[in-house]
User: What shape does this take?
Amino acid sequence: MNCNRRKSIHDYYKQNVRPEITNRFFLIQTALFPKYFSWIICCVIIALSSSHAFGMERHSSSPLASVNIKGKPFEYKVKEYLGVPYRRGGASKKGMDCSGFVRTVYKKFFNIALPNSARTQFCSSRLQKIKGNEMRPGDLVFFANSKKKRINHVGIYISDWQFIHASTSNGVIFSSLEDPYWKKRFVGSKRQRTLNVNAEFPRN
Assistant: This one.
């Protein structure tokens, strides 16, 4: 009798209780899973889109991105010119002036030929004006005589308001745009237009 009773309880549980639990679980699962699944998918898509957009923005923000040079490596590369003496009209490591220095760097690292003087570089239609807060490594920075406001000096922006240039007294050095001497003579910054498109970095 006990065995029959036990069997009947088991049959009842099998036929009634378990299907009910299973059905409830199935209803909950089918009701909630699509919502959570959709939410997870949306989060993944947003994350991927944001990271992609951020990467594109960072890539396009620097003129060096198109020639496969990043800010710090560029700084290390131009450091090889530190200490080169000043020589008017020079454009080699034996001696160079400010325009000769930037022409040498641009030709070597970007394969871009710049005009001969700081003034003609500033007036070149191939360069576009850049706001001070948008300056990136590789941009040209221009200076003028404090009295006549005539462009007479040029350097290359590095980062953190630092630029590298060939000074008449010390040769190729790093200087700060926040230095009072340069700050009052600073005219603006310009960027070679071809550095914003697909330029090819010369492999030496």
Notes: The longest strand covers residues 151-159. The chain has five helices and eight strands.
